[in-house]
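Audit log entry. Action: structure prediction of a protein-small molecule complex. Ligand: pyridoxal-5'-phosphate. The ligand was supplied as SMILES and no pocket hint was given, so placement is left entirely to the predictor. Protonation state taken as written. Sequence taken verbatim from the request; no trimming, no tag removal. Recorded inputs:
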Amino acid sequence: MTETDPQTRSIRIQADRSPHKEHAVPVYLTSSFVFDDAEEMRAAFADELERPIYSRFTNPNVSELVDRMCVMEGAEAGHATASGMAAVFATFAALCGAGDHILSGRDVFGATHTLLTKVLPRFHISHSFVDLEDLDSWAGHVTSKTKLIYVETPTNPGVDVIDLAWLGAFAREHGLILVVDNCFATPVIQRPIEFGAHLSLHSATKYIDGQGRVLGGIVVGEQKLIDEIYTFCRSTGPALSSFNAWLLSRSLETLEVRMQRHSESALEVARFLETRGDVSGVRFPLLPSHPRYEVARKQMRWGGGIVAFTVTGGTRRGQAFLDALRMCTLTANLGDTRSIVTHPDSTTHAKMTEEERLAIGITPGLVRVSAGLEAAADIIADLEQALDRSR
Ligand SMILES: Cc1ncc(COP(=O)(O)O)c(C=O)c1O
């Protein structure tokens, strides 16, 4: 293919058509694939032939999705999983062993926090949380056992941003594997591998699907690391279903236009919220008031679709605000066509202690808005009436 634009190249990658030559590729809804003879079967298992064998580890729909994501992220290789958390766990488990240590940004998705603090210690994998705001402190947390750095940028739910160029250089200097959860930005906004990340990881459930239909996860990056993750997943089984891969792959074709619209609407929402006297700490990467505005401008093409802010009045007001919404949906997801509002303190991050929540800026009044694809004016009108009615 001679086209150079990643979106064009991604759209034009396609799994094989059936003899009917359908335009949208078929869903290869099958557990296994047939061999012509014993020799072909032997050669496939010996990796001498590149062809699907068994859908736990090879399926044309899953391969199409992975190939498309690799082009969009500028990655050598990738592997797709049943959910975002399966991708996070497979990455940690495949690349770290007993005794190893992970350096993680403090502000991470609630289940990732639980994985680091409750699950991995049972396998003798330890962690330190580091502050994205205090980069000078990072070197002091690196030990001879540190293997990997894990960050989200922007973070969920606080919408903090870390300087990826700084982080890439830091990882190189200390010989650490850098893994970036690129879920909030997606590759059309930010390509962490260009800044030195070894792996870029996604909950495909979010913007990659974009319509709140299916779960999925994907990790892309250096071939030799992906080989380890592939081996781990092949033998432990967190496979992405071919149907989900088919949907996710079709959704990638519209990712760029969707992210532009999400980002434009979220910026308008953030600007509106900054005008309100009963709201503080509005966080959106491309608001000049964001503490990492200059960094965000350097590494992000648009700001993404998520805005965080704090309503005055704590938990009671936060929940009253959610109850007063008329259009936006209350649901445990983000990155949908429909705008979604959540209250992290009482939901996704409720398993943390209050002290842990406050350390990453999750105040009792923190609200997260995922701006959907409705008209920005309608999203703002709903937020405005709910703020007014919940006072
Ligand atoms: C930043 C981030 N990473 C990982 C995940 C986990 O993804 P999943 O729900 O697909 O397992 C989420 C889910 O909200 C997330 O927001």
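Audit: result stored. Residues 6-252 form a domain with the Aspartate Aminotransferase; domain 2 fold (CATH 3.40.640.10). The CA atoms of residues 189 and 302 lie 6 Å apart.
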